[in-house]
């Protein structure tokens, strides 16, 4: 099994809860599940596979700790790293910006050479636009704790199983 690290950023706890669920599904120790607020770029080096989680705030903006961390990504080299994403958003109130932050991080990691995994179909969501959708699919696991929290556990399990099989 690859060494997997989950890095999450969360304002009100939803992304943290999802990160812990994903970690549990993958059988990871809690030390592999890190808050980006207290992480450094060097922390990424310990892992072959990074799972990157963010909620979206403002109108299509990064969660605040990811926003602070973001400039550090510009100097990073993710060649040889496998990276998967998950995002938390609200498809009803923010239908024009649904999960945009996941798309922002995707662009940055992809531009720096990461091998991306974990795309997720957009069936079962109602939104107008998402920067996290490419070629008709989400670039990572799409979660909406505000409107579809009842689906979160099954989405996490399905996605984590798919990820485990493709690693
Ligand atoms: C002020 C505000 C702005 C938000 N902006 C967006 C947005 O642009 N796009 C989106 O998909 N969700 C948006 N959301 C929804 C949050 O991303 C969602 O509630 C998420 O579950 C929060 O996760 P967290 O507690 O981990 O930060 C916004 C929520 C609030 C309160």
From TrEMBL:
Cofactor: FMN
Record SUPFAM superfamilies: Flavoproteins
GO MF terms held by the record: electron transfer activity; FMN binding
Family designation: Belongs to the flavodoxin family.
Stored PANTHER family: FLAVODOXIN 1, FLAVODOXIN 2
Pfam families: Flavodoxin_1
Keywords: Electron transport, Flavoprotein, FMN, Transport
Annotated ranges, domain Flavodoxin-like: 4-164
Cited InterPro entries: Flavdoxin-like (IPR001094), Flavodoxin (IPR050619), Flavodoxin/NO_synth (IPR008254), Flavodoxin_lc (IPR010086), Flavoprotein-like_sf (IPR029039)
Protein's recorded name: Flavodoxin
Function: Low-potential electron donor to a number of redox enzymes.
Upper taxonomic lineage: Bacteria, Pseudomonadati, Chlorobiota, Chlorobiia, Chlorobiales
Record's keyword annotation contains Cytoplasm: no
Domain of life: Bacteria
